[in-house]
Records
---
Amino acid sequence: MSDTDFPADVHVLRPRKVSVSKKLDGFLDQAGLAYSSSPIESDATRPSLGRINAVTCADCGQAEYLTREYCRCGHYLSGQLQDEYLTWEEKIHTEHSELSNEVERMLKPLRICYLLTIPFLLVPALHVIFWADSFALTLLLWWMPVLLIAGAGIFAEQHVICPLKDSALFIQNYTFETFLFERSSGFKTSEGW
Ligand SMILES: [Zn+2]
């Protein structure tokens, strides 16, 4: 058999289990240094999940420091973070635009309500034009519904517009740190913290 000839079942060969000492085997088992496919629960060299300085590697699932460009498994963490940021940014813009449409939809009936005030404004005006001599103070009472409808309308409008104003303010002022903060608080919420 030459150096390049291998037995047909080479792929099923297993390394011989060499035991240096039973005490060492016992230590390795206890200290958990043997290879394990289960995630490491607590590792002093890694950040705690849910902290603002931590990122969960999409490849190995371990928590890694945000400042590291690459995870210890070799996964490109900076790229992963950029992707997450862009997805988040897209999401907040979509949500803002949906909210804007929703507010617009809710304001339509309010604007129709304003149209209802027109007759109450016109009656005293027409009365003054055609019967100027007999203008009575009671005609001013016609304007009462106008004041009520306009007042209630403005109040409702402010109430409806308020979340949209908050959202617009957020869109104007968010930074990368806002994303990091939301990310970590989102993790806490999903973990039931
Ligand atoms: Zn990793």
Note: The pocket of zinc ion is lined by residues 57, 59-60, 62, 71, 73, 75 (CB under 6 Å).
---
Amino acid sequence: MSQNTASSPQNRQLIAIWLFILAFMIWIMVGLGGYTRDSGSGLSIMHWEPIIGIWPPLSKAAWDKVFALYQTIPQYQILHPHMGLAGFKVLFWPEYIHRMWGRSMGVVLMVPLLIFWATGRIEKKLIPWLFLLFVLGGLQGAIGWFMVSSGFMKNSVAVEPWRLSLHFWGAMFLFSAVLWTALNQANPEPARHAGMRGLRRTAFVALGLLMLTMFAGNFVSGIHGIADFSIAKHVGTGQPPANWPMSGIFTNPATIIFDHQLLAVLTTIAILTVTVKALRRESPAPVRDAALLIGGLVLLQFTLGVTALVSGRYDLGVAHQMNAVLLFGSVILLLHRLRGATA
Ligand code: HEM
């Protein structure tokens, strides 16, 4: 089949839908990962076997074996010395489901890719790019294991926050790459809106600040900062800690939480500025809608952050993390709609 057929509007829409599904699966994966972290499940599977690891323990003997392995690590000895097999199973399943969801994304990428390739429905230039994303998806699994393995070290009860951040940004790279490719398939031609260049510049600044805030958020969740909120000790209440900013950017919980909040305020202002600018300039409908979306999502994000911290509820922490990715994706959507904007 010719390249012309591959780039027909119908085939492009098909490829776009498939890639949007994949981006959605990555988003769900981020939520599963957040739940795995916050439920303390992430260290319950002590091996990484990309192919044979798809089977959970199927017999009492198999369960005893994985549980015995878990009993050798500091997290069990320090946090759960009295845990029985039933308690271990509660820890096991979230981590298992997180890993299986990762593998299923590999299948959802590779099987249709081979079919679309064989039937000539996909443009040739996309094939090596999507193969690369498949390989990088595998690498993301390896980074996940690199992160998990840091939790097995002496006296450690959780993974190292910088490795958590690396794993998170691996996911964000894949998410944005798949989303951008899907958007390109759905709308190949830049709209080149007139008078929108300034708005695009502000949106880029907002994106930069958003990424910094998200990076700072990785450290809040990495140190389980949600549990550190204290009005009496002024932790998480919005006041800078003593000696700030030289008070331990990556080590002191009060500083980590304060820095995240400060960046969050700047990001919220930047994003709302984009929304207001887009509305005041009577932007074209697709730009206006995306700008309204990011404005709404950033307000929700701020509210979720404050309520998660003050209530200490990890489910709100996971919702906050998933909404951050939705916000990130929506800023990317806005920038896609502003491609080629002129002064
Ligand atoms: C623009 C606003 C914000 C953005 C984009 C943002 C982003 C993020 C991200 C991406 C994470 C976790 C990432 C991870 O490691 O997987 C996070 C964690 C967290 N953030 Fe925010 N955040 C914002 C505002 C706030 C505010 C205002 C607060 C509180 C006053 C807050 C409190 C927290 C807490 C407590 C966590 C840890 C949650 C957990 O352990 O599950 N955030 N934030």
Note: Residues 34, 38, 164, 168, 210, 213-214, 217-218, 220-221, 225-226, 260-261, 264, 267-268, 298, 301-302, 305-306, 308-309, 314, 317-318, 320-321, 324 surround protoporphyrin IX containing FE (CB under 6 Å).
